[in-house]
Amino acid sequence: MHTSVLLKESVDSLHIQNGAKYIDATLGAGGHTEEILRRGGLVLGIEADPKMLEIARKRVGEACPTLFLGNFRDIASIAHEHGFEKVSGVLFDLGISSVHLDSDPRGFSFRNPNASLDMRLNTEAQGVTAADLLNSLDKTQLTILFESKLIAQKVVESRKNKPFESVGDFLSLFGQKWGKIHPATKPFMMLRIAVNTEYENLSSALSQAFELLKKNGKLVVISFHSGEDRIVKSFFKKVEDSGEAKMEDFVRPADEEIIKNPRARSAKMRVLTKLNEK
Ligand SMILES: C[S@@+](CC[C@H](N)C(=O)[O-])C[C@H]1O[C@@H](n2cnc3c(N)ncnc32)[C@H](O)[C@@H]1O
């Protein structure tokens, strides 16, 4: 099961008011939504992966009927469709969940070498798998994707012998784990980011989410690596510089949380308050 990261801190930052509306743009297993509901908020939950939506519905669906399959890059239209156009807060808890990493057959984790190299959050809505990218991008595109000429070269060499199909095929490009972090960790993440167009989705969603906020509404984003945080920070700074919002200092999980849930170690939470409604 997924343990929600920065649960108390993020929901505290939303300043939940009884009967007010909030959007959980990354519903996942429903942990943050459950806490917002417990404190009296109404939630519109958005989740890109049908499997995760099912898990969340089992957990909180009875208390919260407004949980939908969708991509947060469409957050404005989803919110309008369901009467959540003026909200008191929007939460993004980015990336994938522990459910994806621990037990999903779509190849999100390199711990299961026999899994197919798919990585799509929604296999119905998305056509291109991780294996497709490795088998079809040219060397320049692969260099951009992995920020590494060496990995791009290895991919091109390897697919001459055999097309990429499984996690093991991709894993074989990297050496054994010798330090704390496996050398395939970052390339795996970069491949997943490309398959699910994560940076494009986030950039588009943040400005839409900000528009949906009421005066004093909160935009709370938990990111897990510098690529995500750069996008969040630059958007927050842009609206702060324009005088429309106020940004708080970022928050990291306390040591006790990291000891209980080591996956929280890279989390960084940023909070933005909207100053005026247009
Ligand atoms: C870190 S998990 C969220 C966990 C959740 N906050 C909880 O406490 O259970 C992130 C979730 O966002 C979903 N997700 C990722 N990108 C998305 C997108 N563009 N639109 C909607 N959901 C997305 C993933 O499928 C995953 O279930």
UniProtKB/TrEMBL annotation:
This protein's GO CC annotations: cytoplasm
Keyword Transferase in record: yes
Signal peptide (residue range): none
Documented EC number(s): 2.1.1.199
Record-linked Pfam families: Methyltransf_5 (PF01795)
Keywords, ordered alphabetically: Cytoplasm, Methyltransferase, rRNA processing, S-adenosyl-L-methionine, Transferase
One example of a Gene Ontology biological process annotation: rRNA base methylation
Substrates-to-products reaction catalysed: cytidine(1402) in 16S rRNA + S-adenosyl-L-methionine = N(4)-methylcytidine(1402) in 16S rRNA + S-adenosyl-L-homocysteine + H(+)
Entry's localization field: Cytoplasm
Function comment: Specifically methylates the N4 position of cytidine in position 1402 (C1402) of 16S rRNA.
The family this protein is said to belong to: Belongs to the methyltransferase superfamily. RsmH family.
Name of the protein in question: Ribosomal RNA small subunit methyltransferase H
Species this protein is from: Candidatus Woesebacteria bacterium RIFCSPHIGHO2_01_FULL_44_21
